[in-house]
Design brief:
Number of strands: 8
Low-confidence stretches: 1-149
Distance between the termini: 98 Å
Helix content: 55-70%
Shape: rod-shaped
Order of helices and strands: HEEEEEEEEHHHHHH
Structural class: alpha+beta
Radius of gyration: 56 Å
Strand order of the largest sheet: 3-6-5-4
């Protein structure tokens, strides 16, 4: 083959190879061909990442011959990963955490742009650029995994020396009193003392409640006894019985006098039958009058006994009321003492925890220590 023809053939092969390479490169790039305008138009490629952690973005560059950009979307987190690839250079990635922010990357020559979404957590994005494309990736679920890890670290940091609460129960029991673990054991003992004191307060309050119930019952019993006494004094007829007895006694006095007079008349006229009969009749009337007095006296005794019983019941009810009042007073004093003891125990518990700590003791710290010790 002539030299010129060989050169022409090689040139054609070279052109064909170049076209194939260019076609392959264009296929890999984020481009589309605009049929109307007859030009290539960059298309947007958005990389998807799952946000998590503390918004620390780690970008891994890739080698590519194209120009492109990628955007990481942080799912469920605040922040997103951004990656951009330089022309023929490695792509860089960046992650950031900023509440409610979004991230986007643009290519230097393909016009591709991505838009990052925002969320409510901390995002971590990784961008890898290959052939001009940037990919953001994350590996957490709604930012929970990263936050959990960092929250644990935050609590551990807040605990400081109180991390000694991780020691086993055996270690705490055998620890030297002034050692950190020993101080934790002292706090645990103080906490138990507080719980016992609080239980004593509850028991004292229950006793006071029962005493108040007994007082109310005693007061009601006094009221009932007073009503019963009034009823006895009214319904028993003591006054009527006293009146009946007085009347019977008057009749007896009269019968006694009449009988004495009749006896005297009969004695003066022993042969007088009428006088003798009058003496006999007067004696019978006297006997009846004595019986009436006995009956009236018995009725008065019965009425008086009913009243007396009611008075006795009232006195007993009043005594029970006084005892109940004293019990309430004692129970209230017991509650006050138990509350004071519980307050002192709680203060001692707080002092024990402060003595074991080397940092400020917050409610969160106290809860964390109690969780480690398995106490409430």
């Amino acid at each position: 083959m002539p030299y010129t023809n060989q050169f022409s053939f090689k040139k054609s092969v070279f052109k064909l190879g170049f076209v194939l390479m260019a076609t392959t490169a264009l296929a890999a790039l984020p481009l589309t061909f605009d049929l109307d305008g007859g030009t290539f138009v960059g298309k947007s490629v958005a990389a998807i990442g799952n946000g998590g952690g503390n918004g620390n973005g780690n970008g891994n560059g890739g080698n590519g011959g194209g120009n492109g950009g990628g955007n990481g979307n942080a799912g469920g987190g605040n922040g997103a990963g951004n990656g951009a690839a330089g022309s023929g250079a490695a792509g860089a990635s960046a992650g950031g955490s900023s509440g409610g922010s979004s991230a986007g990357g643009a290519s230097s020559s393909g016009g591709s742009a991505g838009v990052g979404s925002s969320g409510n957590g901390n995002g971590k994005g990784n961008a890898n650029a290959n052939s001009g494309l940037s990919v953001a990736s994350g590996d957490s679920e709604d930012g929970a995994s990263g936050n959990k890890g960092n929250n644990h670290g935050s609590i551990a940091s807040a605990l400081g020396a109180l991390n000694a609460a991780h020691a086993s129960a055996t270690a705490r029991e055998n620890a030297a009193p002034n050692s950190r673990v020993g101080l934790i054991s002292a706090y645990e003992t103080a906490h138990e003392a507080t719980q016992t004191a609080l239980s004593d307060v509850e028991n004292a309050e229950n006793a006071a409640t029962e005493a108040e119930a007994d007082l109310a019952a005693a007061a009601a019993a006094v009221d009932d006894a007073i009503a019963a006494l009034d009823a006895a004094q009214t319904s028993s007829g003591v006054a009527a019985a006293e009146t009946d007895l007085a009347s019977a006694q008057a009749d007896l006095d009269a019968a006694t006098a009449a009988s004495a007079e009749a006896d005297a008349a009969a004695a003066a006229a022993p042969d007088d039958a009428d006088a003798a009969q009058a003496a006999t009749d007067a004696a019978a009337a006297l006997s009846d009058a004595e019986a009436d007095v006995a009956t009236a006296s018995a009725a008065l005794d019965a009425a008086t006994a009913e009243v007396s019983t009611a008075e006795t019941d009232l006195a007993a009810a009043e005594a029970d009321l006084a005892a109940a009042e004293a019990s309430v007073s004692d129970s209230e004093a017991a509650v006050a003492d138990a509350e004071a003891a519980a307050a002192a125990a709680a203060e001692a518990e707080a002092d024990a925890l402060s003595a074991a700590a080397n940092k400020s003791v917050t409610d969160e710290v106290t809860t964390a220590v109690n969780d480690l010790l398995g106490i409430n």
